[in-house]
Amino acid sequence: VRAIPASFAKQALRTHGYEVDLAAAQREQELYVGVLRHKLGLQVLELPADESVPDCVFVEDVAVVCGDTALVTRPGAASRRKEAETMKMALKELNLNIVEMMDETATLDGGDVLFTGREFFVGLSRRTNQRGAEILADTFKDYAVSTVPVYDNLHLKSFCSMAGPGLIIIGSSEAAQKALKIMQQMSDHRYDKLTVPDDAAANCIYLNIPNKGHVLLHCTPEEYPESVKVFEKLKDHMLIPVMNAEKEKTDGALTCCSVLINKKMEI
């Protein structure tokens, strides 16, 4: 994870011109990190904020980690490319095999990468192109990689995520449903789906933690009450609502603010 710089409020990229309350965003991020560290008992490496990169809290976009390999991406927004250097140093310290996206024609945001546990789906969006998807496929050769066109949204994971093994959470907009149909057609595996009324609420963090089992971090009832009612049907999950209202104003979702790595840190 990474702290939020003061420059975030005015300078972070956003699709809509919403005003951001910096203190509220920083509080949200502290609570988010607190859930990961204290409630779930994960080891959390927190990188310092950097005022020169206002979007740096959204670490997911600059790295895709699977197994012992980390692909350091080339984000679609030029203003975010400097974030990759800090991420690379942090991942090196965790003894991961680092692959850097050096091709200047390639772009890839981690927000466009959905790993199902069996395969990758990569959204082709304003931020991610075909060449970026090809480099991801070359990096993670053990897995099938399929591309999905993303319309009307910033990223593929703006309207979907995983809720468990073989279970995709999907928003109910036409764009989300169309993307799901393409994913289903391209895959050899049959996924179950959990449809929520709000696209933004479909972005959740799923973890399978020893002694805790299936854990799902999702939006709060204050933000999306109807979608939360759908999550409450997941009786086998530990459900943890996490507020994300301020970061959402800059197109940030729950998955955007962390990179999950399945290994122990040597502290």
* Rg for CA atoms: 17 Å
Number of helical regions: 7
The major pleated sheet works out as: 3 strands, mixed
Spans where pLDDT lies below 50 across 5 or more residues: none
Helix content: 25-40%
Number of strand segments: 12
Distance N to C terminus: 16 Å
Q: Strand fraction band?
A: 15-25%
Shape: globular
Q: Order of SSEs, N→C?
A: HHEEHEEEHEEEHEEEHEH
Average residue pLDDT: 97
Structural class estimated from helices and strands: alpha/beta
* Strand arrangement, major sheet: 1-2-3
Task: Give me a quick take on this structure.
With 267 residues, the protein is α/β, with parallel strands linked by helices. The protein contains seven helices and twelve strands. The strands form four sheets. It has a three-stranded mixed sheet with strand order 1-2-3, covered by helices on one side. A three-stranded mixed sheet has the order 4-5-6, sandwiched between helices.
